[in-house]
Amino acid sequence: MKSLFKTVALITVFTFLTRILGFVFRIILSRSVGAEGIGIYQVASSIFMVLLTIIASGIPFIISRISAGYYADKKNKEASSFVSVVLIFTLILSIAIALIVFVMQRFFAKMFTQVGGIAVLLALLPSLIFSAVYCVFRGDLWGKGNYFALCVTEFYEQIIRIVLSLLLINISFSALQNAFNLSLAMSIACFFSMLLAIVMHFYYGGRLGKFKKGMLKPFLKQACPITFMRVAGSFVQPLVAIIIPMRLIAIGYTSSQALSLYGVAMGMTMPLLFVPTTIIGSLSTALVPDISTAVVQNNQTHIERRINFSLVFAMAVSAMFVPVFLGMGEILGVFLFDNVLSGFLLQSSAWILLPLGLTNMSSSLLNSLGLENKSFYSFLLGAIVMFACIWLMTPLMGINALVLAMGLNYVVAFLMNYRLLKKHAKVNLKIGKMFLKFICVIVPSGALTAFIVSLSEYIFPTFVILVVGSIVSFGSFILLSMTFNLIDIKTIYFAIKQKINTKIKKKVKKHNF
Questions:
Q1: Which of 108, 147, 290, 315 ranks highest by number of CB atoms within 10 Å?
Q2: CB count, 10 Å around CB of 132?
Q3: Region 212-218: what's the mean pLDDT?
């Protein structure tokens, strides 16, 4: 358990650092590339991510699972041969996909409202091949349990990408040129991360063994179903990237304006909404093996307790950030991105945090219970509702339809997941009253934050206003949560005190020994 905690802590720290770098990078991009440039890159990136999902979604997971079995049985030669087989397969597959896109570039060009946008997608194709190599060695390192190497390669890629992007983009360049340079930076960064993954593989004792054709069939049998589900899911973002600008143009916006609005929504606003999922994701990572073990042991009491705790935790973390975005979303968007629309969208989409957090956690719980196929149907139904809302409501609401559509998507997905948990896990979920209590906390906390921020605007500079607003928001949230018995400070205090005393006693015993 202690080893698991260290692993989760390691992954959490590197994930947090990687996301912080990515977030800072987005702020820089919003100011130097502009909303239109980000919009063009987002469309190309959305299409590219579908292609990348074919290569790098289910394959690394299956590699890690099969390799772990070989290493556990001390069959290192078989593991090396398996790596060679999958490496050749993924290389052939990635090259074939890249060639198909290149040959059919006229077809893919129709997905861009901007003339010349296809060049941005073509510049990303080399990274598809580099990622194919990277994901194989990454999967093998994962199978060995070498999480440090995994985290380092991802963090390294992020740094290289940011540095190259800053060197290649320029405020004097056109939106299309900057978007192309961002794609170029991505491909070069993937090349260097591939090299590092190869070095890590051989440094930690990995080898490339003899090619054994018989290993390919069982690998494909396991990889294809997972890859299919994730590829189907990955079509959502590129479809949104195509439909939103198309519907905006249909109601009178120019191509440039439509891409700018989409860039602001997806490139600036939405990443902020996913901040709480970093914390929620860390907990779900830690709980998945715990719940999986309880399933094997048929410990129903433990499963029920863990599921209820997980959902309440996800609710609490998500709810804590809602008053922040409600009360000072507009000023936050202006401060970070120098964009008023970004702040307005952030404020109007604050309510999404609750269904978003609950959907993420409930999906992880279903996966740990072996119900990933059923959770996919929840995702599918939510996506259908989202696309219907985007198509019907964009002419009436403009870009705000995207906010409504995403919110409804998560609401529907969570309600489906909730039903699946009750039916298949056979647990008594006790979150209804907690949800209502959190709503009673969020509303006054958000109103107080908005009031204090509006007063502070006449006195303090923007940064000070954000600090004051954050203190008021989090402070009022905690105090109101205590009032509604959502947080028990005494229990937390005694738990921490007991843990510290236990550590001190262990150190004293060790010293005396």
A1: 315
A2: 27
A3: 81
- Measured CA to CA, the distance from residue 260 to residue 244 in angstroms comes to 11
Give dist(CA 212, CA 214) in Å, integer: 6
Q: Where are the alpha helices (DSSP H) in 204-235?
A: 216-234
Measure the CA–CA gap between 210 and 432, rounded to whole angstroms: 57
Classify each residue of 54-92 as buried b or exposed e, where b means 16 or more C-beta atoms within 10 Å of its C-beta. bbbbbbbbbbbebbbebbeeeeeebbbbbbbbbbebbee
Locate 200 and state its tokens: 């890590």
pLDDT in tens, 94-123: 999 999 999 988 888 887 767 777 888 899
Q: What is the dihedral of CA 389, 394, 398, 399, to 10 degrees?
A: 50
How much is the pLDDT for 280? 75
Average pLDDT over residues 43-58: 82
Residue 182's Cβ-count burial label (10 Å; 0-12, 13-18, 19+) is buried
d(CA 186, CA 49): 12
Exposed / middle / buried, residue 485 (Cβ in 10 Å: 0-12, 13-18, 19+): exposed
Tokens of 133: 């190599």
Listed range (126-135, 200-209, 244-253) with the worst mean pLDDT: 200-209
Q: What is the dihedral of CA 320, 325, 327, 328, to 10 degrees?
A: 130
CB 346 within 8 A of CB 381: no
pLDDT in tens, 323-337: 999 999 889 888 888
For residue 426, give the 3-state DSSP assignment: coil
Report the sign of the C-alpha dihedral through residues 352, 353, 354, 360, in that order.
Answer: positive
Three-class secondary structure of residue 428 per DSSP: coil
Q: Alpha-carbon distance 131 to 331, whole Å?
A: 39
> C-alpha distances in angstroms, 167 versus 137, 181, 267?
29, 9, 20
Backbone angles phi, psi at 368, to 5 degrees: -70, -25
**Gap between the Cα atoms of 95 and 91, Å rounded:** 6
Predicted local confidence at residue 2, as pLDDT: 46
Q: Cα 297 vs. chain centroid, distance in angstroms?
A: 31
User: Does residue 249 contact residue 279 with C-beta atoms inside 8 Å?
Assistant: no
Q: What does DSSP assign to residue 213?
A: G
- In degrees and rounded to multiples of 5, residue 458 shows phi and psi of -85, -10
Rounded Cα–Cα distance for residues 45 and 194 (Å) = 19
- Whose CA is closest to 482, among 492, 497, 494, 467? 492
C-alpha to C-alpha distance for 475 and 357, rounded to whole angstroms: 21
pLDDT for 38 equals 78
- Are 318 and 354 spatial neighbours (Cβ–Cβ below 8 Å)? yes
